[in-house]
Design a protein that fits this description.
Chain lengths: 522, 462
Amino acid sequence: MIDLAGSDATNKRVLKRLKRRKAADARFRVFGLSAVGFALSALAVLLLSIGYQAFSATTYHVVEFDMSDMPLPTESPPDANVSKTLEAVFRAARDDLGAMFPESGSEAVLRMEMSAMITRLAALPTALKIARDPGHVADLRQVRMPLSDDLDLFLKGSGGHATLSRAGTVRSRIDESGMVVLAGQGAFRPLLANASAAGVSFGDDPAAGSALVTAGRSTIRLISATPDDARGELLTGDAADFDGAAPVVRLVEVPRALRAISDHQIAWTLALKTDGRIERVLHWSLLTHTDSTQPELAGTLAAIVGSFLTLMVTASVAIPVGIFASIYLEEFAPKNRLTSLIEVNINNLAAVPSIVFGLLGAAVFLGVFGLPRSAPIVGGLVLSLMILPVVIIASRAALKSVPPSVRSGAMAIGASEMQTVFHHVLPLAAPGILTGAILGMARALGETAPLLLIGMVAFVANVPNSSTDEATALPVLIYLWATQAERAWEPMTAAAIMILLLFLISMNVVVVYLRRRFERKW
Amino acid sequence: MNWLLLAALLTIASVGFTAGRHKAGQFGTDPETHPHSRPNFHGYYVLMWTLLPAAVVGCVYLICNNWIAAELVSSELPAPFKVFPEADLAAYLRAVERAASLPGYASGEHVFDTVLVRFREISGQVNLVTLLALFGAAYAGLRVSVRQVAPDLRARVVVERGIEIFLFLCAGLAVATTVGIVLSLLFESLRFFAQVPLWDFLTGLHWNAQTSAEFGAVPLFFGTFMISAIAMVVAAPVGLFSAIYLSEYAGARSRNMIKPILEILAGVPTVVYGFFALLLVAPGIRSLALWINRVIIEAGWSDGPVLAAQPTSALAAGIVMGVMVIPFVSSLSDDVISAVPHSLRDGALAMGATKSEMIRHVVIPAALPGIIAALLLAVSRAIGETMIVVMAAGQRAQVSMDPTSDLTTITVQIVSLLTGESEFDSPKTLSAFALGLVLFVITLLFNLVALSVVKRFREKYD
């Protein structure tokens, strides 16, 4: 090293300052890195949390029924027949459960709780089948209906905050007040430990949690417990099942009064599961059903079709108009004030908030032209105006990238300007234009706000057939589901989001493929 | 019906094309005649003149068919109807018009249904007349233009001129959209301001459009400002530092990998962000605020809760919105930072600056106009963002500095005022258009300022 002039003190100061500057340099780099890290982890948390929620909605629980001895209504007309058949099917399902759990007949509350395990509308597909063709009664030996959403969540482990423990081997007897007493050396120590760890009490009080002891098909709700014995009320099954068994103890932390599901419903569900009558199956109805007021019956089909119809309208307006406009601006427009006005205009239009386009649609398409509300044609037109600048800007870039030599060559062999553009420039720019068009369509697919203003928020239970039918779109359905209060809607919403993202991702994959395949360097 | 119409028009158009082409083909290669244009262009020439008159008739029909039908019906209405004021009569006819668009609809009220039936009859007649006029016009155009086909007709020039005009009209649609936005917003806003004074709207402190007629928009402006400010507090440093890191520190490989991933943030639909805010961020912030409240109370600094700790809060919406606008800041800043010439960097490093000093004192000042423009565009994006705030910001119009309280914004109110409404007559729905006008003007200003900042302060290096 060259010894720089200056006293030791100066050198020391310089070195000290250098150290500080180096530290500042390192800090700056860390800031940069952590900014990137923040952005990436935000994306990761977003996708993972929604993906995790969505995963639990990919399966759901169905109950199997045998209704082969169902009494059928035979009167016509067919319309009344469907509603009567629906009632009959639902009643048969309920009676089937009632036969399995005789205790449900004893009290009105229990009968209601039993009915609530299956939604009445869940019987509709079966009822429709039978009403159309009574020959289908033979199929009734095995009918599957979705379990109610709250019990489904409970079985998936996210309803009621249940903690499991296993009791030791117990003996059971019935005491003089009709209660079941279970006794076993230290059998209930794990339960008491869990209860004190969670700070939950259990017993007769509806404001307390519940401790449910299950062996085979039988379940007891405990009223009191010591480490060595416990006393409780038999909810379903037979007290003899517990004798010599090592039952499972469920501590449900959420108080009974605050829960959507009762202890009896839990007991029956567990018994059905033990019998193999409840199965966890893939949730295809998410794709094949339309919207419903019941989470376990709702699906996205109508919204997907609505989105598709809307996008068809958008594509058939925005893509040709966008391409023609960009051809004019790039190839024909004279350099004058009008042209520059159009250009400034397009750039500003690209930055106008999407909701303003919704206001435009509400005032002009609905108000002035009197087009039908909630129709894909209006939504499609609004979205096409919104993505028009996107398509124009991308198409202009693609046209610009075609070298002038192509135009000169075409002109030189006698093509007119129009022929030059349509026969030579446009085919070469087509991949770039298509890329921009697909990106614009992807934006239109994810857009929600303008559709809310033109009434595409209606509850749509039928698959729309044409672009003038009442319809909703996938992002709007997500909005509707996300703002529902019931907890079961959360995984459903997440699953709908995954479907939407899947469409968006596949559109982007096409874009990447087009770029790779057709990119050329001039 | 519409498809049939379209098919019929296309048929007559192709007949025109064939006729023109066929006639032009007869010219042959006779050296005497020397046709100016190729037969195809003659075909297109006839096709153009066939479709154009039909399109004009069709447009006129689309714009005023209901109006004509309503006029005809109202001229037939019996004398008792004439006692009603003009406006009521118009509203009545609008209701009839709407009912007529629903197939098979009948109200059950005798007078209304009679008018409705008559309206349907008349609009059916109008449709028939239009159809005849449409095909008459197309046929006339075809006859006239086929007669014009001759060897010296400059068909190609005319056709290409026609195409150019068509292209110009397509480009003009963008202008028409802007004009449509401005006019519709202005028109409805003026109707609103006829009922509510402009000054009260802009300075009033109480907003309660749903239940009572209080239209003081200051709480909405405040909420919008507050949430956008929170969003920018997140997005500005993160976006800027990401851009700096990517353009100055990161290697080519990691840059090529990270940049597209950051762009994904801009491609995620906003309703997904809204759900994310509702699902994870808002509950998290609520429990954090509750915890802070408890700590403060236990420490004895306050008797009651300090933070509002609402289930939906300005902070949750702001943070998620900030994440959403990160890529707007980062990719635009990245572009301008990369555009700073290398000679400047080399000069600074040669003077002994560390890398961070070089970036802070040379690169950023040189790129500043572009960075400011990027930030302004991001603000404008945040102000106009709708779904995140609709889902996660709340509905309460209040002025509160507490970020955990629920605030409402311009866009939230537009959505809640217009969802499920079809009548644009009450001040309640009209106020949505006034808010839309404010939103449009604000975002437009931000964009124009951003553009002019770039234009005025851009450094030219080559």
